[in-house]
Design brief:
One of its GO terms (molecular function) is protein-lysine N-methyltransferase activity. This is Protein N-terminal and lysine N-methyltransferase EFM7. Belongs to the class I-like SAM-binding methyltransferase superfamily. EFM7 family. S-adenosyl-L-methionine-dependent protein methyltransferase that trimethylates the N-terminal glycine 'Gly-2' of elongation factor 1-alpha, before also catalyzing the mono- and dimethylation of 'Lys-3'. It is a single chain. α1 packs parallel to α3. It contains eight helices and nine strands. By secondary structure, it is of the alpha/beta class.
Length: about 260
């Protein structure tokens, strides 16, 4: 019988030095607000959920929020899902939202990165606003998110969804999250802003909107902006679409508010 207890494998299963490429170091990016303030955020070095990028939709969402701050942010409770670096959340807090909850998938690197960005932005945020960070998976129970709200609040006035609808299998969970978190009010709104980085998949991405309407919402397209530059210069597909940012508002249908 073989004596495996005395078998010494040594370093047989140890990967040789340099076998794996070194992990990328975190980088930093800046968003220049219309007010003249600059939001500087840390991006994780590399990540399968693209937390290493400051997406065009995040920038355009931030500009839209700043332009409409009196309507969408002042004194309001805001939830961002799929936040990555969290620039729209930070801008929302700076511009006077009462409560902002910045969320992304509960991966330790992503959540820690969001927390660092929230802490770095704290000196720019007025004392009347609060900015929180939560890990959250779309479709999961929302009690931890509601714990961030002021007492008596019945949901979020605004949900920010920047470059999340490209994840086609998650459309039902995105809609479920809206149903559970968006305040039952005619003024409550979800902003869905995205770029078709893979233009040939745009028809699949757009299926999100009729699905939302089937589940109690009204969808309104609010803009289509063509940017000067691509985010991914060498990607294939329609060149103009890869520079285009689409914006939609989603609100409760009147029937859901009766």
């Amino acid at each position: 019988m073989a004596d495996f207890d005395n078998l010494d494998a040594g370093d047989f299963f140890k990967d040789p030095e340099g076998f794996y490429p070194p992990e990328k170091e975190p980088t930093f990016a800046e968003h220049h607000m219309l007010s003249g303030q600059t939001v500087r955020v840390r991006l994780v070095g590399s990540h399968p959920l693209y937390g290493d990028l400051l997406w065009n939709a995040g920038r355009i969402s931030s500009i839209t929020l700043e332009e409409r701050a009196d309507e969408l942010l002042k004194g309001k409770d805001v939830l961002e899902i799929g936040a990555a670096a969290g620039v729209p959340s930070i801008v929302s807090a700076i511009k006077g939202a009462r409560t902002v909850v910045m969320t992304d998938y509960y991966d330790p690197d992503l959540v820690d990165n969001m927390r660092q960005n929230a802490e770095s932005a704290a000196p720019m945020i007025p004392s009347s606003s609060s900015l929180h960070v939560n890990g959250y998976r779309w479709g999961d129970p929302v009690e931890p998110l509601f714990e961030r709200l002021p007492e008596g609040s019945k949901g979020f006035d605004l949900i920010i969804m920047a470059d999340v609808v490209y994840n086609h299998p998650q459309h039902p969970n995105l809609i479920k999250t809206m149903q559970m978190t968006l305040k039952r009010s005619s003024e409550a709104v979800a902003l869905v802003i995205f770029t078709p980085y893979q233009p040939w998949l745009l028809p699949k991405t757009e299926k999100f909107f009729p699905l939302a309407e089937e589940n109690g919402f009204v969808v309104t397209k609010i803009f289509e902006k063509v940017l000067d530059e691509h985010l991914f210069v060498d990607d294939p597909g329609d060149e103009k679409l890869r520079r285009t940012v689409f914006g939609y508002e989603i609100r409760w249908s009147p029937e859901q508010l009766k």
